[in-house]
Write a structure and sequence with these properties.
4-stranded antiparallel β-sheet, alpha+beta, 3 helices, 36% helix, single chain
Length: 98
């Protein structure tokens, strides 16, 4: 199992980020071929201070090859190209694996 983890920085407009993410970006990501599961959550710190990241998304694939090929499909490209439309705080991509 390979998990594409996306850490989104604090956006300029959290309400606009949330609206776009839920209505546009998440549906695009869910359509990427090879996706086994897709989850996202808002982040907080234990002390209540603002965390460096606003949201974490985890997209699971069976293998690194499946992840890479999924991102090369039209659906994967659409999701990738959508990120600048809402991620004003930037996005950091990481891959975790078993």
């Amino acid at each position: 199992m390979h998990i594409l983890t996306v850490l989104y920085g604090q956006p300029d407009d959290p309400a606009a980020f949330d609206q776009h993410y839920k209505s546009t970006h998440a549906p695009l990501a869910e359509k990427i071929p090879g996706v086994q599961s897709f989850t996202y959550r808002h982040l907080a710190t234990l002390d209540g201070s603002q965390p460096p990241y606003y949201l974490i998304a985890e997209v699971a694939f069976d293998s690194l090859e499946s992840l890479q090929s999924g991102l090369q499909t039209p659906e994967g490209q659409a999701a990738t190209e959508d990120v600048p439309n809402f991620a004003t705080g930037g996005a950091t991509l990481l891959v975790a694996h078993d």
